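Exam revision sheet. Question 4 asks you to relate a sequence to its structure. Input first:
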Amino acid sequence: MKYDTFCGGVFETNCYLFHAPEGAVLFDAPDGSCAWLQNRGVSLKLLILTHGHIDHVGDVAKIKRNFHCPVGCHPETAPMISDPNFFRNFGFGFEIEPVTPDFFIEETAEREFLGAKFQVFEVPGHCPGSLCFFLRPQKLLVGGDVLFAGGVGRWDLPGGDAPKLFQGIKEKLFPLGDDVTVLPGHGPPTTIGEERKTNPFVRP
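Answer key, structure tokens:
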């Protein structure tokens, strides 16, 4: 399955556009992603969020308004995108246009999105409700901010938990296979094998 990548916002956040059999699916919505989709002439059918941190959800409302597409996320992500004061309550000076998710996604062995079958993993520790989406035939993992090239998601934000994050990576992601490509929320793609061998946070 073909996919395209856009990097947007001041935090240089990646989002991924998959061309599923029944339409276009976007994973995450950083600032600028709505204009990127419009400039490419994409007819977006579905927006899925890996988690609710501000740098991944900046354009959710714009995308829903412009493309009239449903938005799916983990239940713990819902207040992050529906309550405009959520981040302010933690002392952050961020404000978003609130959006109510259309459906929820939780860990499951298989879930179909527009004809594409993904295995869904819940890997908290960076953020409550963090989800990773595994496209087994293509050996692709949309990882959000769980695992990066040479790093992992930060755990010092509200709801962060370093041991839980490290354990989730080792127990849920590493068994997928060394040849699996990880599409992270920040930075370049990597592989499970490379991170298993060299990542200082999760090496055996």
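Marking note for examiners. Residues 58 and 197 are 34 Å apart (CA to CA).
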